[in-house]
């Protein structure tokens, strides 16, 4: 029981130490640099620069950039509503239909080629059989 209480007291002291440290830290610094994208606050420009070179930040930038992008038309919109308007536009739908048609054509093309190869193979087989019979 006493151990549990000691643990609890230690937890409280650690917590209060942390908050005191943080408050003192931010109050003593004149400038706070923030990355609004990641909601990160740092106390020096160097740290901010390092943060912006980091993978976490770059990933966020990329993800944000892709939010308003139409990969199909290779178009970047300024806002979600603009992208929505584009996705509903006839221009985008025409591209979408074109792409689907192209995919279907590709599938058909592949099957025609496979069928052609099988035909040639069967013909060759019959030809060899015929030659063997004759000889
Ligand atoms: Zn960031
Ligand atoms: Zn589009």
TrEMBL record:
Q: What is the lineage of its organism?
A: Eukaryota, Metazoa, Ecdysozoa, Arthropoda, Hexapoda
Q: Where are the transmembrane segments?
A: 109-131
SMART domains attached here?
Answer: ZnF_C2H2, ZnF_U1
Q: Which PANTHER family match?
A: C2H2-TYPE DOMAIN-CONTAINING PROTEIN (PTHR46144:SF6), ZINC FINGER PROTEIN 385B-LIKE (PTHR46144)
Q: What is its main location?
A: nucleus
UniProt name for this protein: C2H2-type domain-containing protein
Localization (cell) = Nucleus
Task: Could you list this entry's UniProt keywords, alphabetically sorted.
Answer: Membrane, Metal-binding, Nucleus, Repeat, Transmembrane, Transmembrane helix, Zinc, Zinc-finger
Which positions make up the signal peptide?
none
Organism of origin is Popillia japonica
**Residue ranges annotated for the C2H2-type domain, each copy included:** 35-57
Q: Name one GO cellular component term.
A: nucleus
Output the Pfam families linked to this UniProt entry.
Answer: zf-met
Instruction: Give the GO molecular function terms.
Output: nucleic acid binding; zinc ion binding
